[in-house]
Structure prediction request, 575 residues.
Amino acid sequence: MPEIIRAGNLVKRYDSFTAVDGIDFSVSKGECFGFLGPNGAGKTTTVRMISCVSPVTEGELAVDDLDVGREPRRIKSILGVVPQEDNLDPDLSVRQNLAVYARYFDMPKELANQRIDESLALFQLEEKQREPIWALSTGLKRRLTIARGLINQPKILVLDEPTTGLDPQARHLVWQKLRYLKEQGVTMLLCTHYMEEAAHLCDRLVIMHQGRILVEGSPAVLVEEHAGREVAEVHVSAPQRERVLAEMASRPGLTVEEVEDVLYIYARTPDGRAQMADLILDAESVAYHQANLEDVFLRLTGRGLIE
Amino acid sequence: MSIALPGLGIRLPDVSYRAYRVWQRNRDVYLRLWKAEAIWPLAEPLITLFALGIGLGELITEAELPGDQRYIEFIAPGILAVYPMWSAAGECGWGSFFRMENQRTYHAIVATPVSIEDVITGEILWGATRGFISSVYILVVIAAFLLLDSPMALLVPILAYIAGFMFASISLSYTSIARSISSLNYFFALFITPQFWLGGVFFPLERLPEELQVASWFVPATHVVDIYRGLVQGHLNLGHLGHLAWIAVVAAIFYYVALISMRRRLIQ
Prediction:
């Protein structure tokens, strides 16, 4: 697949603070590419540079073979941006919000009306189209914000925390719509710190921390490489912990991480579960789970609070 | 396409016809709320003409005013100038700040092919339009009091647009550095309100000490008030052209300041 976004040694600096510190990545046409990382990792800044609303300090950034510094209007005309914040027009109706937004793209009225009808149908907002924005629930506002981002039929849809603050039903509905769009061939950029969301939607992702990319790959491969198959979260007393840590050395299939009074043991081999069970028999409490993206994330970015 | 002159460290503002899209957005919101918005420019001049024009005016003899006018005739052109000043400045003060920080409207718009300079230009053009609309309402009220002596008064809304552009630009320049919506109070209490009371609307500036008369030259509203007096009373002279030039120059300066300063605030 040809690449649609290419970043080379991309840097963003604010006075003395470096928000993005020389990153390289490329996104292929039609894929869903994720940016994961704790707050302040630089993912929103990166996406803002791609959206041409934050100037690049250093390095290269091309979207659809256009340079972000030179052709912001042309790039913005092929992007659909779904921001993290709610910035719908509260005084306008649902339908007017879409119509006003379509006008920013110079869309002729008839075409805009046709697109608005389509997206209202897709996002199940037809019955609400005359309602003012303040009368909508958070979930409905989110759906409308995504519908608004699609009004120009963008080549690339940029989603910044699209489901933050939604209840599970609303979140699953949004995911379902996003999967549908992906099937339609829309390239998606997804910033999130919901690991489940990233695992659900992304073909490929990067995990960022302190302005740098730590790893890149598909969710399955990253889990396999960095967390293995299974994880045990073990609460043990201090002397037991010493014993477990000492025995770890003789078990090559396991790795351990110590966080406060909890041990996280990662099993990489098929018999990992047996090895772990045997090791931590007398622990106070043990919880097993299948290794997932969250384990990768926490292993790489640390389990402590960042802010 | 934006043009940069990196050698000189100058970046030319990227303004396009898309400013009109921003103007249209503001118009659409206004048309949903227009009834509530029409109250101020109708009620305020009405109250002022009754309270000051008729009430206070009865106590003032005509000989004390230039051209032997009644007091209500004296204040009418001034009212026509200063209430639209409030509309234009308020729109690009509280209105713009609210759109920018609370509703995040600017952020939504610049994600589309509209540039931040288009947004600023559209906002100022809209602020000027609010001045225009307000002047039309007030003109109707003043006409109802039979206070228009000349058909030239029909030119007032056009000048209200130009003056509105100036007040909107000054106001948005201040908004671009305002930290919170309450800090706009400084601007309105210390800059707009004094022009309202001291801009030559309610008493002839010739009454002031000479130093203050000189200082009044720097006050935007006095130039607008002077032009309107000429239009409403039907005698214009070259001096009025000087006032118009003054307004045009100040409008241009603050339009540019608003463009630069807002970009600095929003595009980081």
Remarks:
- The radius of gyration of chain B is 19 Å.
